[in-house]
Design goal:
- The longest helix is centred in the middle third of the chain and has 20 residues.
- Helix 2 runs parallel beside helix 10, helix 4 packs across helix 5 and helix 7 crosses helix 10.
- The radius of gyration is 21 Å and the shape is globular.
- The strands form two sheets. Strands 6, 7, 8, 9, 10, 11, 12, 13 and 14 form a nine-stranded mixed sheet that branches. A five-stranded mixed sheet has the order 2-1-5-4-3, covered by helices on one side.
- The chain is built from ten helices and 14 strands.
- By secondary structure, the protein is of the alpha+beta class.
- Helices cover 28% and strands 25% of the residues.
Length: 357
């Protein structure tokens, strides 16, 4: 095994200028279906527009029919590869037909149109995304650290907890944290969550489309690390029924106007707009979210839109510091852990900036 490890970590930059580019895309089997494949390039690349397009068999990812199966990968963002290191890269792509049209699951295409809108560009939307997830024991679909067929002690000591009986999977969490920093992702923190075996990482602040790119690549890196650890990664919004917290992806958000003096008035206007489109947002905020947004376990009931200062039981929370400073940001607590960050970030920008009433 030591020789295998040596070969995996082999630095080839001493003998060739060639690099390995891992092309990443979202498959069509589910909203969390992350796929990737690698290719060799003649030398280092730091601009996605200089990368070649590529293709894959869309009939094997539920994105095309067998008699017309070719889907084209268009590189959009580059990150350093923490697994192969050196000049090797991870490449976030969107998927299109051979004619150049986006396929239905290629949500980045529509998101970039919204983020390119002149009003949105002028407002410089910032996003900070709190991505919760659950680590599961392989083969049993049960959280890491839980007794098979049984339950741990009730929630209470696990949130930001330390100790072998409270924190399960910290090695995975720390490995992911450092790998994201290496890759160039603006990961801003990690913590243990309320349910044991559940964790969170935060990405941001990121401007516009980069928020979606960075969350997707951070998810890819986490999938790879859990793969190596023999642990299953779940983004299910309610992985364990009953009196246990679900998993969300809280969206912290601000615009240039909200960050300026008297920005609190702009925040209230934006929240009012979100309330008017509550049903549309809920539909777009993740599969299975109705199992999580029950009004319990630090959530609002999905049938009603509410907001409040320091209220984690509301749809939208405004922080005490924002209220005090009369400017800042707010937190949309409705998105589920399996939300598509391209869809959610662009929808929030569209509703709060482009929508006039």
């Amino acid at each position: 095994m030591s020789l295998l490890s040596d070969l995996i970590n082999l630095n080839v930059s001493d003998c060739t200028n060639k690099i390995i580019a891992e092309y990443i895309w979202i498959g069509g089997s589910s909203g969390m279906d992350i796929r990737s494949k690698a290719r060799t390039l003649p030398g280092p690349v730091d601009d996605p527009s200089k990368l070649p397009t590529w293709n894959y068999d869309g009939s094997s990812t539920n994105q095309a029919l067998g008699d017309d199966s070719e889907v084209i990968l268009h590189p959009q963002a580059i990150y350093k590869d923490p697994f192969r290191r050196g000049n090797n890269i991870l490449v976030m792509c969107d998927s299109r037909t051979p004619k150049g049209d986006p396929i239905p699951s290629s949500t980045r295409y529509n998101a970039i149109k919204i983020f390119s809108h002149k009003d949105v560009v002028a407002e410089e939307p910032w996003f900070g995304i709190e991505q919760e997830y659950t680590l599961l024991q392989k083969g049993v679909n049960w959280p890491l650290g839980w007794p098979i067929g049984g339950y741990p002690k009730p929630q209470g000591p696990y949130y930001c907890g330390t100790g072998a009986d409270k924190a399960f999977g910290r090695d995975i969490v720390d490995a992911h944290y450092k790998a994201c920093l290496y890759a160039g992702i603006n990961i801003s923190g990690v913590n243990g969550e309320v349910m044991p075996g559940q964790w969170e990482f935060q990405v941001g602040p990121c401007v516009g489309i980069s928020a979606g790119d960075q969350v997707w690549v951070a998810r890819y890196i986490l999938e790879r690390i859990t793969e190596m650890a023999g642990v299953v990664l779940s983004f299910d919004p309610k992985p364990v029924p009953g009196d246990w917290n679900g998993a969300g992806a809280h969206m912290n958000y601000s615009t240039k106007s909200m960050r300026a003096e008297r920005g609190y008035e702009e925040i209230k206007k934006a929240i009012e707009k979100l309330g008017k489109r509550h049903e549309e947002h809920i539909v777009a905020y993740g599969e299975g979210n109705e199992r999580r947004l029950t009004g319990k376990h630090e959530t609002a009931d999905m049938s009603n839109f509410t907001w409040g200062v320091a209220n984690r039981g509301a749809s939208v929370r405004v922080g005490r510091e924002t209220e005090k400073a009369k400017k800042g940001y707010f937190e949309d607590r409705r998105p589920s852990s399996n939300m598509d960050p391209y869809v959610v970030t662009s929808m929030i920008a569209e509703t709060t900036i482009i929508m006039k009433h």
